[in-house]
Specification:
Layout lengths: L5 E7 L5 E7 L2 E5 L1 E3 L1 E2 L9 H6 L5 E4 H6 L3 H6 L3 H5 L5 E4 L2 H6 L4 E3 L4 E4 L6 E4 L1 H11 L3 E3 L11 H21 L8 E6 L5 H14 L3 E4 L8 H8 L12 E3 L5 H8 L5 E3 L2 H7 L2 E4 L2 E4 L19 H5 L2 H9 L3 H27 L3 H14 L5
Parallel strand pairs: 4-15, 5-6, 6-7, 7-11, 11-12, 12-13, 13-14, 14-15
Antiparallel strand pairs: 1-2, 2-3, 8-9, 9-10, 16-17
Helix pairs in contact: 6-7, 7-8, 10-14, 11-14, 13-14
Length: 377
């Protein structure tokens, strides 16, 4: 028997923060959850078993990149993405919609889909809602995302409305393209509408009418001020069904996660912990820390004395500073390990606070501690 996808809401804190559990064909996931990003079937600088030791239960892989290289047919022939990358936990694949946004110079959007040129070799490619779903099914994803258009910020209202309506039509086509619901995997719809409340409402209503296993909030963290993102999150999650998971795509910094969890969001992904580690930035309980700073040249203590990760237990800031300055690959690995561990610890602490109805106090203490001990301007 294949385990079917479902979401169980376990508890809601007075703030609206939710504690839940996802059930997928490859295991269960505690929520709120942060998903490390494995763009090309790898979380950069980490072996899958190392990712698991940080506390991660689910990862994200990128449909656009795997579609281009090595190709979803190749991955399918080799046993699917779980076998290919030796990850036995759940996998969520994005649809390629964000790459449509970020690689705008290489694409052309039509009602049928997106024609684009590969950023690798310039070859002409095409991605439709039906193809996007088929690619993700071939990869063997546990959670499949609809193809959508992610508008930039700022964008005029007329464009946002047209884009949102196109994404809704694509959502219906993605739902119709599902080959079977007997494989246990989930299909998520994606809310769009920019910073316009009525467009977000229309998008949510349209997606609910189509019916999805979960719902994502798209079109955020695309260049808008933090205040605007916070404004949208103050109402948008509540537009989505209570009994389905809510996924905020591409977010974000630790403070963003804490804010969004308090608004009722259950799932997150972002490249920040891995990308910033490779650029010498560590996330700690006192704030962000740039190990390249000369002040850490002879610092014998760990990056975060309160952290129990392998890096903090065995290596000093001085050593990480040295590795970064020498451009040693080990530095990337140790700092990535720490950042992923920090993010997973943060999510676990929030889950515990929600279960004990003290999320408001947790949020207050989180902000105060980082303000008092801020390490980077």
């Amino acid at each position: 028997m294949i385990a079917r996808f479902r979401f169980e809401k376990l508890h809601t804190d007075p703030t609206g923060a939710r504690r839940g559990r996802l059930f997928t064909p490859h295991g269960s996931v505690e929520t709120p959850v942060f998903m490390p990003v494995g763009t090309a079937a790898t979380v950069k600088a980490m072996a899958p078993e190392e990712v698991r030791t940080t506390g991660a239960e689910i990862i994200l892989a990128n449909t656009y990149h795997l579609f281009l290289r090595p190709g979803h047919e190749t991955v399918a022939r080799l046993g699917g993405l779980h076998t290919f990358m030796n990850w036995n936990g759940p996998i969520l694949t994005d649809s390629g919609g964000y790459q449509v946004f970020s690689l705008s110079a290489l694409r052309k959007i039509s009602e049928e889909g997106v024609a684009f040129r590969s950023h690798i070799d310039g070859s002409a490619r095409f991605l439709s809602p039906e193809i996007a779903v088929g690619v993700q099914e071939s990869l063997g994803a546990d959670i499949v995302m609809q193809l959508d258009e992610c508008p930039p910020h700022p964008a005029d209202r007329a464009y946002l409305a047209r884009s949102m309506e196109l994404s809704l039509r694509w959502a219906a086509r993605c739902k119709a393209a599902r080959s079977s619901d007997e494989d246990g995997r989930a299909l998520f719809g994606i809310m769009q509408g920019g910073m316009e409340r009525d467009l977000r409402q229309a998008s949510a209503s349209g997606l609910i009418e189509i019916g999805f296993d979960g719902y994502a909030l798209g079109g955020l963290s695309v260049g808008e001020p933090k205040e605007l993102m916070a404004e949208v999150l103050s109402y948008a999650p509540a537009l989505l069904p209570e009994d389905r998971p809510r996924y905020l795509m591409g977010v974000g910094k630790p403070e963003d996660l804490v804010m969004a969890v308090g608004c009722g969001v259950d799932m997150f992904d972002c490249v920040l912990p891995t990308r910033n580690a490779r650029n010498g930035q560590l996330f700690t309980r006192q704030g962000a820390m740039n190990v390249k700073s000369a002040r850490f040249r002879e610092e014998s203590g760990p990056p975060d004395p309160e952290c129990g990760c392998h890096t903090c237990r065995h290596y000093s800031l001085a050593y990480l500073h040295h590795l970064y300055r020498c451009r040693e690959i080990l530095g990337h690995r140790l700092m990535t390990m720490h950042n992923l561990h920090y993010y997973q610890d943060l999510m676990a602490e929030m889950r515990q606070a929600i279960a004990e109805d003290r999320f408001a106090l947790f949020r207050q203490q989180f902000v105060a501690k980082r303000t008092e001990g801020l390490l980077c301007p």
